[in-house]
Design goal:
alpha/beta; 11 helices; 7-stranded mixed β-sheet
Length: 276
């Protein structure tokens, strides 16, 4: 097996966003020969216990993290393209887990209603920096938004560089994340992000921004996203990746997609070992 650990993965505890249970994700990761797996559900550690128990049975190395939803004006059910900026954080060991868990709890209490955590950006950074590794994340992250612009089509390297430098001021350990879901501009955006990383001196890591364990589960993930948005699959089509793209992939398949980024796969294993 090609050494590779998936560091961006949502379970069905990311309500109406992830499709597979923690146990299914672990079993598929083991079957694919992955070197480790991170669970990064939205704004919480809801599936952490089941994830840890399943991984322990297979002796699969694990990382615990979360994708934080910043600046939410209100709960986002019913929105085709939810508002807010995403921040993907991976906890370092038991200390990082407890620090991040308390920050998540406080954000939910501060929000005052279900589905709307409220984070104080400055206080959050002061609290968890040093205890987490940050990935630049999905299309709703600060760096990717700066790169692609409001229409998601651009490649503004200077804006992305400025966003990455600002992120590193808050969180010293930031890796630039590349993923490929079969969309026309994926290669263009990944190449641009790699150039931005080189400008800043940041490491590049490959993920698949996973929302399902298998292709069959990926169809379920699309249906669940439509339920969340209260739209039909046809109406939501423009916001959905191609069927089967958001699944766990083997190291060999990831290498075929990201061989032009030296170290992007190997670094995922190093991060997993560092954070365990």
């Amino acid at each position: 097996a090609v050494p590779y650990a998936e560091l961006h993965c949502h379970s069905n505890f990311s309500f109406l966003d992830g499709a597979s249970s923690p146990e299914s994700l672990v079993a598929e990761a083991v079957g694919l020969g992955l070197s480790g797996l991170a669970l990064t559900d939205h704004d919480g550690f809801y599936g952490a216990v089941r994830f840890a128990e399943a991984a322990e049975a297979y002796q699969l190395p694990t990382v615990f993290g979360a994708e934080l939803s910043l600046d939410l004006p209100a709960p986002q059910n019913g929105e085709a393209d939810p508002a807010g900026e995403h921040l993907l954080v991976l906890a370092r060991g038991a200390t990082g887990y407890h620090t991040l868990a308390s920050a998540l709890t406080e954000a939910h209490l501060r929000g005052g209603e279900k589905g709307r955590p409220v984070y104080d950006r400055g206080a959050l950074a002061q609290r968890i920096r040093g205890d987490v590794v940050v990935l630049t994340g999905c299309r709703k992250s600060a760096v990717r938004r700066a790169l692609t612009g409001p229409d998601g089509q651009g490649t503004d390297l200077d804006a992305a560089e400025a966003a990455l430098r600002a992120l590193r001021e808050s969180y010293p350990e930031v890796c630039v994340e590349v993923f490929h879901h079969g969309l026309p501009l994926d290669d263009t955006h990944n190449d641009a992000l790699a150039e931005v990383a080189a400008r800043v001196g940041a490491a590049v890591v490959a993920t698949n921004n996973v929302h399902a364990a298998t292709p069959a589960d990926a169809h379920l993930a699309a249906a669940m996203a439509a339920v969340r948005a209260r739209r039909s699959l046809d109406e939501l089509d423009g916001w959905l990746p191609p069927a089967g793209a958001v699944i766990l992939r083997s190291g060999a398949e990831m290498r075929s997609l990201f061989s032009r980024f030296p170290g992007a796969l190997e670094r995922t294993v190093e991060i997993t070992q560092d954070l365990a």
